């Protein structure tokens, strides 16, 4: 099978590498020339698991990125620490995305992917419901068409070649229309209780701050707030630099962490509007990473969703190529797995922003979201274990690889998601309805017929007989 991947960020590079390693003929085109700057520096432990599967983890360990063991959250009056290294024995990294993304793309090349940079996919032509050609524009030269592929993977990020430009079926999540402003420092410090290499997340009355340790003694420090609050504050300051300095000084905690530190210069601003497409796949195509959905960066899950969707899509296509599963079944599994992961994280982020339940209530919600039947009992110990597993992406990988309890736990999880969002968006709330529920496959029991496997080879494995 010939596969065309449009986009060479983490989702596209990972999907391409995994499929090439599975023996498929893979071509990738990317509009940028790497290295190029990108935000999204704090990776979850699930990223290590995925990158282990494609042979990248040692490369990243040897590169010199900061090893990340967990983090500290100060939210309202609550404080808690999560330590993935202590809980699961898995580390991740704090990365410079320009270097990380370039390493991933080079790894794809080294595994036989035909990579071309400086080429933008402009439009997709369909025939009989399947993509059959992609119109491309190079940085220099004449536009051309790629039409020699059997399957298309859209990894075009927020540009959304299929979801935004072709189908126009992205739904913005209006309760998460936020803006981030950030910069880099030397000499800044972390909260004293932070696990080695960990992130700090610190709330404020109108938003929250991140503090991320980077290689070379640098610190990435940013602030996220609503678009309305940002517009108001920006109007009151002459420049983004001046606003950023004001926001750093406005938080006693952040001001303390940057006391005596040196700001390295450029202030960056980016909108973080969350969205989700009505469909993540269809005959002949799958949409991975930000091209399908984007979630506010509060829980640092962007690269997790990118790599998780990439590995899952690659497993589906590899099994389709080998005749182990038909396309309809494979794509049903992909849609199920990716949308479930997004919805659960969306539930946690929304609750933290809109109607925070207090630490114990929040942790019990996390228990329910991974199907812990003991959650909510008076004698149950309340801890951050489930929360850490969810935001670490480990629950997604575990469930994709183990379908033995999926029907039961997904039913519980669906009820928990819907119940919690009814609390968040109660009739007297100004928040929108939870639109991603419409048409979601959370209760699609047919998806439990398969599980994702990486050994002895990447693919889907049937776990029970097909229905008559």
TrEMBL record:
Organism: Micromonospora wenchangensis
Coiled coil: none
Cited InterPro entries: FAD/NAD-bd_sf, Flavin-dep_Halogenase_NPB, Flavin_halogenase
Molecular functions per Gene Ontology: monooxygenase activity
UniProt family annotation: Belongs to the flavin-dependent halogenase family. Bacterial tryptophan halogenase subfamily.
Annotated keywords: Monooxygenase, Oxidoreductase
Cross-referenced PANTHER family: FAD-BINDING DOMAIN-CONTAINING PROTEIN, FAD-BINDING PROTEIN
Keyword Chaperone: no
Protein name: Halogenase
Sequence segments annotated as region (Disordered): 424-450
Superkingdom, natural source: Bacteria
